[in-house]
Write a structure and sequence with these properties.
By secondary structure, this protein is an alpha+beta fold. 39% of the residues lie in helices and 10% in strands. It is elongated. 6% of the residues are buried. The mean pLDDT is 82.
């Protein structure tokens, strides 16, 4: 392994962040893996990622010895949390979830009326809600497989 002389590189300017130095992290949970050498560099990514309410959190890089002690051995990848739900648990959990209509009827009816001058059957709302539930379940599985507790737009395929 080559000799490490710095903790990480700044995600914006790519300058090295030394061991024991102060650096910035984004307060948004989905953006926490990036590090920035200064508040100015952190500020560069905010408009790009369109964060609504974010701030820079000051952190201190670990010492070189501490960092090296926490590296995985033999270039193995760090462990990720994998949540496994067996089918009996999944069915019992899903049986407690109400089958409410998830679609705003007035908005859907107005859209279809304006787009095509057609009306909407009552059964359409139930069917669309089932489709939305199915897509949400797939997105939840995707987020869980990546070890996240937040469903994001990229989880919907």
């Amino acid at each position: 392994m080559e000799e490490l002389n710095y903790f990480r590189k700044c995600s914006a300017c790519k300058n090295e962040i030394n061991f024991g130095a102060i650096y910035q992290k984004c307060s948004v949970s989905s953006c926490r893996k990036n590090v920035y050498c200064s508040v100015t560099c952190w500020d560069v990514h905010v408009p790009v990622l369109n964060h609504k309410s974010a701030w820079a959190e000051e952190e201190r890089a670990p010492s070189k010895q501490s960092f090296l002690n926490n590296l995985p051995l033999n270039n193995e990848k760090p462990r990720r949390r994998i949540i496994v739900v067996n089918k009996t648990q999944e069915n019992s959990v899903n049986s407690n979830i109400p089958k409410d209509i998830l679609i705003v009827a007035s908005k859907l009816k107005a859209y279809i009326k304006n787009r095509s001058d057609m009306n909407v059957s009552a059964n359409v709302l139930e069917r669309l809600s089932d489709i939305v539930r199915n897509e949400c379940n797939n997105a939840i599985e995707q987020a869980q497989s990546e070890g996240r507790k937040t469903v994001m737009d990229r989880d919907f395929k």
